[in-house]
Every structure is written in C-alpha cells, then in structure tokens.
Amino acid sequence: MAGDDAAGGPPTRPDERLLNLVIALVNTSAAMTKQQVRSGVHGYDGAPSTEAFERMFERDKDTLRALGVPIVTVEGSGHSEDVGYRIDNEAYALPPVDLTPAELGVVALAAQLWSDKTLRTDMSRAMTKLAAAGAADAAGDAVAGLTPRLRAAGDAYGPLLEAVSERRVATFRYRAANTGQVRTRTVEPWRIAARGGGWYVVGHDRDRDATRVFRLSRIDGRVRVGAEAGAFTIPDRVDVDAALGAGVGSERTAVLAVVPERAPALRARAVQTDGPVPRAPQGRDVVTVPFRSLTAQADEVAGYGVAVLVLAPDELRAEVRRRLTAAAALDGGAHGTAGRDG
Amino acid sequence: MAERADDRLVRLLGIVAYLDGAGPVGVDELARQFRVTAERIRQDIDALWVSGTPGYMPDDLIDFDAYSLEEGVVSLTQSRGLTRPLRLGTREAVALVAALRAMHTTPAVQADAERAAVVASALDKLTAATGEAANAVDVRLGGQGDARVLGTLTQAVSAGRRVRLRYVDAADVTSERDVDPVRLVTQDDATYLVGWCYRAEGRRTFRVDRVLDATLTPDPVRAHDLDGDVDIFAQVAADAGQSARVAVLRLASAARWVAEEVPVESVTDLPDGSFEVRLRVTNPAWLRRLLLTNAPDVLAVGPPDVAADVAGAARDALAAYADVPGLG
C-alpha cells in the first residue's frame, strides 16, 4: 500500500489517517476547514504540496461517504469564507437491527451468494458493521444444508449501481442481441436485476424514449456515469419481470422433438398442451416443456446436441442454432458447413 | 496480504462502538466477533491507542486499560465519541438486502415454511434499517424444479435421512441411486444436491432438475468424510474420475465465469481481452455439453480431437434441423 511520503518519520497508513479524520470530524464543535484538517489531523501533515493534500483529502472524503459516513459541508460564515466539514452525528448511526442468532445465520449464508469480489467486499463490510452493532453469534440451524450462489455480475455493476442509487445517467456501448451491432446507449437506469443466470439493467433509454432492458454481459467496455446527481426520477413501481418481458421471467412453452429414450430430464418437465401439437419429425417424440429464461433453455437444449430439436418458438430455435453454428466451426471448419441458414 | 484501508477502517470504528456497548471483552472473543485473528485485533488496538482528536495529547486519544490487555481482556476507557455503530453504506445495504431477497425466493427455502419465515424476518429487519436505497438491485434465484422432488430432498437434508433417487446424468443415462444428502446448493438458475452416493461410493453432485424421482428412506444418513460446501462445477469434474487429459479453451471475456466456476488448472489473460483456460477432461460428455452451450464465446479448442468431437456433434444437430421441413 502506498505511503504518504511524509518528509520525516514513517508515513501514516491510509486507514489510520481516515480514522483520525473521522474522530476529528465527529468531535469538531462546528466544522473544520480544509486548512484545519491539513494542519491538525494526523496523517495530513506529511502532504508535500497543497495539490497533494487536496487530492488526498478529496479521495478520503469519497472513501468515507462510500462507507456510509455522512460528511456534511458547512458554508463559511463570520470570520471565515472557507467551507467547513463535519460529520452529521444523527445520520451516522445504524438504527437498531436486533437480529436473532438464527436470522444472523441467514445473513451470513446470504453473504456467500455473490461471486464478484466487489460485492463480497461490500457484504463483508456490512457483516463487520452488524458485528459492531452487537449482533450475537450466528446460528446456522435454520438454513442448514443450503448454499445459494449467483454468477458474477462483472465490471458494469459498480458504476451502474452508483448511477441507480444517485439517479445519474449512464452511458455505455452495447452489443444488440439480434444484429450484433455495437451502439452507444444513454440510459436512465432504474434497477439492476439478476434472472436465470443473467444480469440486466432496466431503465429509460433516452434515444429510444422507451423502457429498455440491457444485459450486462453485452455491455462493451466501461460504463460512464453522468456528473449530475438526481438527473431523473425512478418510477414508484418498476416491474422488472414485465420489463424483461417475454425474454425472461414470464412462462412460455418450448415444443421440442426428442429422440426416443433420450433427455428424460426434459421429459420429466413435460406438460400437456391444449392447442394442436405439431407432427413429430420421423423418429422423434414431441415434448412440450415450460420455460422462463430463453438463455437457460437454449443452453440446455443445445447441450443435448442432435438428441433434442426445437420446433417452436422460433426465437428459442434461433438461440440454439446460434450456439450450434458457433460450435460447428470449432474444429476450424475442417468439414465445411453442414448447417444451412434459414 | 495487505488489507484494504476502508475494510480496516470499518473494523477499527466497529471495535470501538462494540466495546462501548459490550464492556470489557476478551481478545479472542473480539476476534471471533469480527471474524479476524487475535493478532489482527492486537494490531487494531495498537492503532486505536494512538488515534484521537487534533492535538493528540494523552487526553485526546482513544484509550484502553493497559493492565486488562496484558491479561487478554480489551477494556475501553475513552471512545472519543465513536460510541455508535456506523450505518450501512448504499453498496453494503444493497448487497445485503438483495442477497436476502434472492435467498427468500429460492425453491430450497420456499420448500420449508419455517425456513422461509426466518429469512423473511431477517429481511424485514434489515430493510427497515437500510431504507429505500436497497431496492436498486433485484435478484431472483432458482428457476424450475419439481416442487415434490425438492420438498423430499429438503426434508431429507434437515432430517438426515437417506434418499433413493432416479437420476439422469449429463450423458443422458438414467440410474437409481441411494444417496446420503449433505447440502442443497442453489447456483444461478439451478439447484444441486450434494451427497454421498452409495452406487459410486463417493461424493456426488446431482442437479435437482435431473432428479426424476426422489423417495425418502427410513435409514438415517451415515457419517461420511466429505466437505458439503462444494463448488458445483469443481465437483462435476472431480466426480468423473482421476486419470484425465488436459483440454485448452480460449474464451471471449463474456465467458469469464467459466474461469471462475469450472475447475481450471490455469487461466492466462490475453492482450485482446480474451483468456485461455486449461482444464482436465474428466468427463467427455460434460465437456461437450459445456462447449455446445457456450460455443458463441469459445474462440478456440484444443487438442484437435476435442474440437472435432464438439464440432461434429454440432454439425449432426444442424443437419437434423436441415432435414425437418420448415426448420432447415
């Protein structure tokens, strides 16, 4: 970890400098100016120049705010024109939570859900704060034998969460599912959602002037977050599943042509259909299964290879064929292309 | 390994607030409370001891009773105003509440009313303490699954009873097995049962949506030397055997999860953002399925016979589509 290049003596560690800043701002009677921080708070005295101090102090304020420390700005008055800083002691404290050991056990287990390092860090910090509030030993009995896990959200999560939380506009390059074209999108993000192994952001697309859903894995490069906070309002009720629409969430049925004796796991989920059943291709059974996630259903069917074909819907067949076409090229097209487009 | 400055700060503030409420506490107990080593706690106390308000004269500093500390007891005598636990930051509240909401919707939790009630009450208390911000992220886990099968498995895990499964594996072969269940793992949109399989005489992982039927037996589970907290994808490969060849996959960055969730031997990042993984092919049917499923993100596969196997399987399937009128 980088030191602070103090001219004399060992540099103060950043965590210890931050601690002294919190103590100073909690105890200050009115507020402290930057100059008072620089000359008074342990750890800042070593800054080699005013610019270096300003950078350090700005970064530290950001760090503390991200951790939930409510630093407020006080306009200069009377003797001084300078802006002052203090910690809002009313807003500082965690309200009483009073988790039972069984509930704390549930929270500890839920912490294992996340795969992303940043989310795990957020979670472990939350656990430290609950421990500070006196949460007792966790009891795992209520959820014994359970482990929830979720696929990583990736790099877009951090900036998008900041954008949703502070109602800032997000801009990113996005690869459209159907055309593969990459375009810059400008979005007022409302919710980040995970469904069926995929991560999405739901919001208002400013260019389309409509509600749109974007898959995080199709975001190309960085998400840029707008400078203006409170740039839009989030609707009172955001129905993520409705926004995801037919793609994910609502239940549909897949009509599959399955080789006899194969795919009993699929057959076990088979349902009767009211409508006319398509005629089975030769040497296959028609099996109808309900599904919610197009991606997950396409993954499953593609995994069976020739044993399971999609008769309907077209969208599912297209997704399966996209996987198969890519797989058919994996040996460098040594045998030419057997699959025909159509 | 160096700890992040903000993580340590949260603990330093937390220790003072906790001690202010709890009174003198043993070093070991404090270490347990904050899930760190006793050595870390002692370093934290040393850091707190020299911190305080500007001036930093003895009366300005956070203080502990030195005599008690020699006896292994941490006794706070001056808190310098850090008496209250710090509230949750937005990111922390979001991670916590979204995880609990997701857990509440998992089939494995919903299959047991008592369980669902505990998760719901934890969620209520934390939502009350964190407010609106926590709505930013909405996670649903679990997907499909035969409620009856899941109910039987949940009951078997909590009661410690053996189950008889009719199961169809990745190679699409159906078998009957007696299993001592250890744990139900929900990962993304699927739930898995981890247990001791009497047929295989070892630890096995079963996808719950591939369990065709589950019956509770009267037999209690036996003690087995196995770790129930497994990584599902690691387990899938480990289950299949030992003597295995190595396959090398080059994957687009979108398939990063493969490097995280499949038991790879090595991961090499490439300049163009793609990456290469080496993994043991313990089960050819499993690898073929992995490649077919993720083919759009697979840039290259070696050795050639592995690539030929999956490409051949894909061509057979595409040819079958071509043969069906209206689909080809």
In short, what is this structure?
With about 350 residues, chain A is an alpha+beta fold. Helix content of chain A is about 35%, strand content about 20%. Chain A has 4 domains: about 80 residues, Arc Repressor Mutant, subunit A, CATH 1.10.10; about 45 residues, no CATH class; about 80 residues, SH3 type barrels (Roll); about 80 residues, no CATH class.
How many strand segments of chain A?
A: 12
Question: What are the low-pLDDT stretches of chain A, counting only 5+ consecutive residues below 50?
Answer: 1-8, 336-342
Q: Report the top-level CATH class of the largest domain in chain B.
A: Mainly Beta
Question: How many whole angstroms does the radius of gyration of chain A measure?
Answer: 28 Å
Domain count of chain B: the total is: 4
* C-alpha end-to-end distance of chain B: 57 Å
The largest pleated sheet of chain A is described as:
5 strands, antiparallel
**What portion of the residues of chain B fall into strands of 2 or more residues?**
25-35%
Predict the CATH topology of the largest domain in chain A. Answer: SH3 type barrels
| CATH architecture field of the largest domain in chain B | Roll
What is the count of helical runs of chain A?
11
Could you say what the CATH architecture of the largest domain in chain A is?
Roll
Main-sheet strand order of chain A equals 8-7-6-5-9
Determine the oligomeric state from the structure: heterodimer
| Mean pLDDT value of chain B | 85
